[in-house]
């Protein structure tokens, strides 16, 4: 089992924690990790882009000039794609970009992402993080104490003071154990997890 240090919010080491190999030391499946990231980005797309084809652009019903004798190339409509104001060739239409992964694939992808962070020693475990009030400066000082900048913070409980304190820091995102995903784990440089959150993750996925 991997052994990681446990810190308090002042950045001082207060103990150590054994990480479960069934979660943080699995065989990394890069294909499923890639699929999970692409799936999440695709599922977030609105898919509302739309343009008109030549059949949908108004006007252009009359032939602009006769077929022969003008010296111009023959034209049938002023709404053909080569005309200004004409339709778009293969115009994009609203569509659903999303696709599904099964539960086993999602689980393997998530465990692979967690394992990669553990192997890179990019997991920081906090004994706990609590604030008496909503204060961005307080959360910024925690990051400063840990010498971190861009981080995903995983909490076990929906602590509004912590979540709201981190909201105005653009390089930080706070998630709960039931909302963590592969994309966020890989997007942020470091994974900050509370001891309670580690216990919950190991209980759910082991």
Automatic annotation (TrEMBL):
Top-level taxon of origin: Bacteria
Residue ranges, compositional bias (Polar residues): 43-52
Pfam family of the protein (one): Ribosomal_L4
Keyword annotations: Ribonucleoprotein, Ribosomal protein, RNA-binding, rRNA-binding
GO molecular function: rRNA binding; structural constituent of ribosome
InterPro entries membership: Ribosomal_uL4, Ribosomal_uL4-like, Ribosomal_uL4_dom_sf
Region (Disordered), start-end ranges: 43-86
Transmembrane residue ranges: none
Biological processes per GO annotation: translation
GO cellular component, one term: ribosome
Function: One of the primary rRNA binding proteins, this protein initially binds near the 5'-end of the 23S rRNA. It is important during the early stages of 50S assembly. It makes multiple contacts with different domains of the 23S rRNA in the assembled 50S subunit and ribosome. Forms part of the polypeptide exit tunnel.
Protein family according to the UniProt entry: Belongs to the universal ribosomal protein uL4 family.
Oligomeric and partner information: Part of the 50S ribosomal subunit.
Protein name in the entry: Large ribosomal subunit protein uL4
Source lineage: Bacteria, Bacillati, Bacillota, Clostridia, Lachnospirales
């Amino acid at each position: 089992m991997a052994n990681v240090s446990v810190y308090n919010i002042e950045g001082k080491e207060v103990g150590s924690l054994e990480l479960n190999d069934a979660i943080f030391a699995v065989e990394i499946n890069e294909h499923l990790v890639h699929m999970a990231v692409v799936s999440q980005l695709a599922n977030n797309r609105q898919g509302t882009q739309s343009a008109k084809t030549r059949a949908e652009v108004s006007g252009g019903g009359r032939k602009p000039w006769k077929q022969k004798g003008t010296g111009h190339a023959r034209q049938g409509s002023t709404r053909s794609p080569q005309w200004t104001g004409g339709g778009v060739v293969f115009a994009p239409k609203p569509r659903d970009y999303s696709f599904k992964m099964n539960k086993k694939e999602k689980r393997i992808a998530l465990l692979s992402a967690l394992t990669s962070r553990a192997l890179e020693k990019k997991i920081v475990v906090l004994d706990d993080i609590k604030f008496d009030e909503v204060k961005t400066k307080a959360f910024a000082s925690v990051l400063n104490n840990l010498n971190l900048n861009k981080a995903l913070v995983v909490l076990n409980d929906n602590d509004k003071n912590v979540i709201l304190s981190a909201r105005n820091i653009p390089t930080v995102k706070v998630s709960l154990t039931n909302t963590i995903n592969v994309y966020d784990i890989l997007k942020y440089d470091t994974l900050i997890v509370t001891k309670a959150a580690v216990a919950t993750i190991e209980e759910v996925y082991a």
